[in-house]
């Protein structure tokens, strides 16, 4: 049996997979209103957002939807990056607005000390950043940075695709206006759903806009359909919505979102301890270690990864960007199993010796 420890898609339990096999319903039915009404209400409560929506598409779609609904061509967006996914946020921003961006090298994380002067000296109306840089396993100190940016009057956008719900998040507390995440990581679902969370200021920004350059991703259309009858403006991936609801049920059964985040934190501490005991060096600088995946330097990383797969059918992945071929990543997201992590770590230890 294969073991999937990649940072998305992740292992999906049988009960979530089987939820997709329920009989099909139409998205204009009372049954779908009940399904999406439950998902949307719970999601809003989980995030502590003003409104929350689910789009059929990837996490990138969620982030692009947030940017195109928030940003205008004549304004400026300030972006901080420390890896591939921060760069992707910049790439999306450059399609819709002017972008001022600042980057850190691999393994370094953003905190308020590093961000403050850049925020003070920027005339941008919007600030955007990735919460958890998946490519290097680095968790940025998002809350303090977003709070500061919001205090300066900026609208704020967070990419939380590989962070939520593995890491603590409260939309009101973090002072985030536009939140983006996805189904295939710490939620433990199949890929194909983008998660959107909006603040009161985000809703006001959307409704004050002129033309929004999209049909599918115009959030005014999603708001209109939700407020009318808790449905979607276009045909959604109904089977994936059923899987997402089952995922929410499993999370709630384990104590809810706070307990889910604590489970990920403890798993990350355990994996880091095992990795460092092998004599391997972690990629994130101290204090910026991700809770959803562990990244570490490895000689012959590609060969180690290949042996893990061929000898024990264990899938881990290499690092991105400037550390391609120089590091490895073990994900502990969603419905991971402790025994799978142990087998992975035991196999890794044997191979590197």
Question: What does this molecule look like?
Answer:
The protein has helices at about 15-20, 30-45, 60-70, 85-95, 110-120, 140-150, 170-175, 200-210, 220-230, 240-255, 255-275, 300-310, 340-350, and strands at about 5, 50-55, 75-80, 100-105, 125-130, 130-135, 140, 155-160, 180, 195-200, 295, 315, 315-320, 325-330. The two termini are about 25 Å apart. It is of the alpha/beta class. It folds into two domains: about 5-10 and about 255-350, Aspartate Aminotransferase, domain 1 (Alpha-Beta Complex), CATH 3.90.1150.10; about 15-250, Aspartate Aminotransferase, domain 2. The mean pLDDT is about 95. It is globular. The chain contains 13 helices and 14 strands.
The SSE order reads: EHHEHEHEHEEEHEHEEHHHHEHEEEH
| Structural Rg | 20 Å
> In CATH, what is the class of the largest domain?
Alpha Beta
Tell me the total number of β-strands: 14
Number of domains: 2
How is the largest sheet built, in terms of strand order? 2-10-9-8-5-3-4
Instruction: Classify the helix fraction into a percent range.
Output: 40-55%
Largest sheet features: 7 strands, mixed
CATH homologous superfamily assignment of the largest domain: Type I PLP-dependent aspartate aminotransferase-like (Major domain)
The percent range for strand residues is 15-25%
Structural class: alpha/beta
Estimate the global geometry from the Cα principal axes: globular
Distance separating the two termini:
24 Å
Low-confidence stretches: none
Count of separate DSSP helical elements: 13
| Topology-level CATH name of the largest domain | Aspartate Aminotransferase, domain 2
> Mean pLDDT across all residues, rounded?
97
At CATH level 2, the architecture of the largest domain is: 3-Layer(aba) Sandwich
